[in-house]
Design a protein that fits this description.
By secondary structure, the chain is of the alpha+beta class. The chain folds into 4 domains: 1-46; 48-85, no CATH class; 88-171, Efflux pump adaptor protein, beta barrel domain (Elongation Factor Tu (Ef-tu), domain 3), CATH 2.40.30.170; 180-245, conserved putative lor/sdh protein from methanococcus maripaludis s2 fold (Beta Barrel), CATH 2.40.420. It contains 3 helices and 14 strands. The strands form 4 sheets. A 5-stranded antiparallel β-sheet has the order 3-6-5-4-7. A hairpin with a 3-residue loop joins strand 12 and strand 13. The radius of gyration is 35 Å and the shape is elongated. Mean pLDDT is 83; it is low at 249-264.
Length: 264
């Protein structure tokens, strides 16, 4: 009987020992897996460039989160841009175009570019891409203003251009040689009529005009004004608009309506 009890106790003790061994082996495999993962992460901390070039650090501008600025001790998230090596052979200018002008911009339009760092070295390029949706980052600060991101490809290779430089881009939408132009502030619209106020001696003359085209600064006048005439930048107080019912532009090339100018 004592022998039988000793055998049963030994079997129970053996089962406990096997259970402890299995638990220890499972714990070992789990910790070994974590250790291997840490080794892989440690090895991945060494970033090697795929090609020579200029290293540009990410700045978290895609989320406007100051905690994502790349600096020592900062946390990084999955798929976060830490560093990039831009291809210096293909540089572009990023601009934002207001909704009132974006419909006039097309891919392939020529562009005149001036980089602030080298203002005396003008560049040329062309419109590469026009955004189809408003810039969501800009709407954070001014929700009423809608602008569209546009990419302008710089022609040629220029070693002195660096990423992040400020530049001015002038998109050539249309060329109108030998036209009379006035500031857009001088063009007024009322009851589907486009007119301006002209200084004639000591009096103000209200005159209908025919606008050929315009940009954000000037309006090209097809008819209604002569070179050298003085126009008002704002409408005078108590202005008599009755002459508009009798006056017509001096000449019209077609029967199309005048180009509407946004109110200044």
């Amino acid at each position: 009987m004592r022998l039988s009890r000793s055998k049963k106790d030994a079997i129970a003790e053996m089962a406990d020992s096997v259970g402890d061994l299995n638990r220890a082996q499972r714990s070992y495999r789990w910790e070994k897996m974590q250790l291997d993962d840490l080794h892989q992460q440690y090895a991945a901390c060494t970033i090697r460039a795929e090609r020579p070039g200029l290293v540009v650090y990410g700045d978290g501008s895609d989320r406007w989160d100051p905690d994502e600025i790349i600096r020592e001790g900062a946390r990084v998230r999955e798929r976060q841009a830490i560093i990039t090596i831009p291809d210096m052979r293909h540089m572009a200018v990023k601009v934002r175009i207001h909704e009132s002008q974006v419909k006039r911009v097309r891919k392939g339009m020529p562009v005149e570019i001036k980089v602030d760092a080298e203002i005396d070295r003008p560049l040329v390029g062309e419109v590469e891409h026009v955004g189809v949706l408003p810039d969501s980052e800009n709407r954070r600060f001014n929700p009423d203003q809608k602008v569209y991101k546009t990419s302008i490809k710089i022609a040629g290779i220029h070693d002195w251009i660096k990423p992040g430089m400020a530049a001015q881009a002038r998109i050539i939408i249309r060329v109108l040689p030998d036209v009379v132009k006035i500031p857009v502030q001088s063009v007024f619209n009322q009851d589907d009529r486009t007119f301006c106020c002209v200084q004639v001696g000591a009096r103000v003359e209200v005159r209908l005009i025919d606008v050929e085209d315009y940009n954000n600064r000037f309006a090209a006048i097809r008819s209604g004004l002569e070179e050298g005439e003085t126009v008002f930048l704002s409408m005078p107080d108590k202005l008599d608009l009755s002459p508009l019912d009798r006056e017509r532009p001096t000449s019209r090339k077609d029967d199309s309506k005048p180009v509407p100018i946004p109110e200044s």
